[in-house]
């Protein structure tokens, strides 16, 4: 059975065609600086494509198999800032 999990991310943008870089997992344990993840543009909703937009990355099975990307609400963004 695959496990679905949600981790925070921040959109960086990209110079590659049809790709967007998202910094995933910043500030979490050993991944304090996060990891850049290159995602196809069609998987990222239009309201989440601007740099520095805070998003939730919904993945499955503890890998980077991205199922869905959602924009954080204002309250969630205040609770999960880029810099602490």
Task: Give the topology, please.
Blueprint: E1 4-13, E2 19-24, E3 35-40, E4 54-60, E5 65-71, H1 74-79
Antiparallel strand pairs: 1-2, 1-4, 2-3, 4-5
Characterise the protein shown here:
There is one protein chain. This protein has one helix spanning 74-79, and strands at residues 4-13, 19-24, 35-40, 54-60, 65-71. It is mainly beta and 84 residues long. It has one domain (4-79): OB fold (Dihydrolipoamide Acetyltransferase, E2P) (Beta Barrel), CATH 2.40.50. The protein has a 5-stranded antiparallel β-sheet with strand order 3-2-1-4-5, with no helix packed on it. The mean pLDDT is 84.
Give me a quick take on this structure.
By secondary structure, the protein is mainly beta. It has one domain (about 5-80): OB fold (Dihydrolipoamide Acetyltransferase, E2P), CATH 2.40.50.
């Amino acid at each position: 059975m695959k496990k679905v999990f949600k981790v925070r991310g921040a959109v960086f943008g990209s110079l590659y065609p049809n790709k967007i870089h998202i910094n995933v997992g910043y500030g979490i344990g050993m991944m304090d600086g996060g990891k850049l993840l290159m995602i196809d543009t069609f998987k990222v909703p239009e309201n989440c494509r601007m740099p520095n937009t805070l998003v939730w990355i919904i993945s499955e099975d503890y890998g980077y198999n991205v199922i869905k990307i959602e924009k954080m609400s204002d309250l969630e963004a205040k609770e999960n800032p880029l810099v602490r």
